[in-house]
Amino acid sequence: MSESTQAWVAAGVRAVIGAHTQAQDAGRTDDVVALYTPDAVLELPGTDPLQGHDALREAFKGWAPTQPQLHLVTNTVVTALGPDEATAASDVAFLQRGESGWAVQVLGHYDDTLRRVDGTWLLRRRKTTYQL
């Protein structure tokens, strides 16, 4: 795979991760769900995996922000598996603003698998782990 293809894949993957973060923090559930393949899986600690748009929509609706929040996603490493498949590993800090200001609520890690479908990069699988 050429360097330009790898750079193109990395840019597309980072754009999806960024769009997901912004839509989730704004409570735009349908925009978040649209970033997943129809058969996507979301794995979170302590829960059964969520699979498919309906399960994802229900979950993200329940997680809609009730106060200002930010997911700060950083240290993303993208590995292009081909022009239509990639993985990404990212660190994340989740902050919420309360009465005394912004505070870190959770530190975690995302392991993402993405696929390009009809020219658009989408999340196929996201596994989230929390760091204590």
Could you please describe the fold and organization of this structure?
It is a single chain. With 132 residues, the protein is an alpha+beta fold. 30% of the residues lie in helices and 51% in strands. The chain contains three helices and six strands; from the N terminus they run ααββαββββ. A six-stranded mixed β-sheet has the order 2-1-6-5-4-3, with helices on one face. A hairpin with a 6-residue loop joins strand 1 (36-43) and strand 2 (50-51). The longest helix is centred in the first third of the chain and has 24 residues, at 3-26. The relative contact order is 0.20.
Could you list some keywords that capture this structure?
132 residues, alpha+beta, globular, 6-stranded mixed sheet, 6 strands
What topology emerges from the helices and strands here?
Elements (H helix, E strand, L loop, with lengths): L2 H24 L2 H5 L2 E8 L6 E2 L1 H10 L6 E14 L2 E14 L2 E17 L2 E12 L1
Parallel strand pairs: 1-6
Antiparallel strand pairs: 1-2, 3-4, 4-5, 5-6
